[in-house]
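**Fold in tokens:**
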Amino acid sequence: MAFFFSGCWNSLSLVVLLSFTAAVPVFQFASLGYILVCAARIAKGDPAKTWFPGMSLAGQIVRCGFWTLLTWLPVWFLTDLGYSSELIQPGSLNASRLRIFARFVSILWVLWVAWAIARGGRWRHFLWPQPIRFVKTILTRSFWLDLENRWWEFLNRLHLWRLIKLGFFASIGALLWLAIPSLLILIGLNGPAQVREEQQGGLALLGLLGALSMAWVIQYLPVLQIHMAVENRFSAIFDRTAARQAFRQVPWTYALAHVLFFAFTLPLYLLRIE
């Protein structure tokens, strides 16, 4: 049972972490890169347990973030109370004392969270700081050396640069594939207001040509991005032969994967429209 709940938590944490990084500039490439790494492992036939690397690490990161936010709530309440007192009674002694106390608690909270994460970031580490152990450990050289080693190990486990680079090149490849269809569609949509009436038919044909070419491109692009991740070379994203070969081998699976891929994007567009 504990294994089941741990797996559910790690899976949910991975989704949350990917969603968060997808909204952050530069790190959004890492989100795309991770998805391509997972798809590449599935495409290569790797064991199922290796399809989603770093799930346990994602669970640890989200758990630390959750407890950090939870322990911040009392500090936020005191800080807000101090500012409210200053607004109600500007310059009063009680307001000044409350703001000083809130700042002092904020400093303690930073130490509390940093110490909890340094010990492993589990829930019990956030609930009880072990002050005696903190005083004994914080001044030892071995603690700082161990902390530095674990920090670099954590960064290495993220493979952040590799994921960002993979996502960046996949985005560049998608941009090159979509440039001409998108340009034709934009000209067809935005041109009629700027041309004479007898020329609008030609613009409509341009827009139709752009839509048809877009439909042709999106048949290849997702598979070619995965192919690029499998081959680990940028030129593979232009290898249409690999996509056609994949379709010939498993046509129904290929079609179903495309239908599900684009179906799952519809809620995003519905929210964007709203």
About this structure: The mean pLDDT is 83. The chain has twelve helices and no strands. Residues 55-88 form the longest helix (34 residues). Residues 89 and 95 are 7 Å apart (CA to CA).
